[in-house]
Specification:
Helices cover 39% and strands 19% of the residues. The chain is α/β, with parallel strands linked by helices and 208 residues long. α1 runs parallel beside α3. The two termini are 33 Å apart. The relative contact order is 0.13. The mean pLDDT is 89.
Length: 208
């Protein structure tokens, strides 16, 4: 997400704002979040969701590991005079004294983290940054594959090649689109069932 073409694409998306289903998603989850409580968006790029929530009256912080996206986001925030702060960091390295009333983990970000222990550590850090009884929202891919499905075959081959720490649901995939210029394949974990997600959250300290 650091290629200039991708940065330009996501900058254009800022002006388009949230899709209708995203507006409903955030509206439902922010009902009990006062405007004086800050919001954190992890993997927020150049700020499409952040600027929309800022327009709703919230102060928003964005984390991302793409310096190009962060630089563009800061530029747009200055132009719009929007209360959005951009930080070049991942969640584990992010240092702050703030506590957040709402944290949003961007779509599929959790699926890119290899290894159940690392995903739980990631979720524990998010838990530590939340005000007591506040909300973490996350979108993940849950997709059970078995038999002759190509992901199942690929996952078994990779487990044989890489080692025993390879987990059921682990595979690699590529992402293509008008804005995506890379042909690189990336690690990806498909949760096999919804209880797998719930159990990781419980182990990280979340009770609901």
């Amino acid at each position: 997400y650091s290629d200039q073409k991708e940065v330009e694409y996501y900058t254009t998306m800022i002006r388009r704002g949230l899709h209708s289903h995203e507006k409903l998603f955030f509206t439902q989850r922010l009902l009990n979040v006062p405007k004086d409580q800050d919001i954190l968006i992890v993997g927020g790029g150049c700020g499409r969701e952040a600027f929309a929530l800022s327009h709703w009256g919230y102060n928003v912080d964005v984390l991302d590991i793409s310096s190009s996206m962060i630089q563009k986001g800061r530029k747009v925030a200055k132009q719009l005079e929007a209360p959005v702060e951009f930080h070049y960091a991942n969640l584990q390295s992010y240092k702050t004294k703030k506590k957040y009333g709402f944290i949003f983990i961007c779509t599929s970000l959790l699926n890119f983290i290899q290894g159940r222990p690392h995903r739980i550590q990631f979720l524990q850090k998010a838990h530590d940054l939340l005000i007591d009884k506040s909300c973490l929202a996350v979108e993940v891919d849950v997709f059970q594959y078995r038999g002759l499905h190509r992901f199942n075959i690929a996952s078994r081959l990779l487990k044989w090649k890489i080692g025993s720490y390879w987990e059921k649901g682990d595979t690699v995939r590529s992402f293509y689109g008008k804005h995506n210029t890379t042909q690189q394949t990336l690690f990806y974990h498909f949760y096999q069932r919804s209880p797998e997600v719930i159990n990781e959250f419980k182990e990280a300290g979340f009770d609901k």
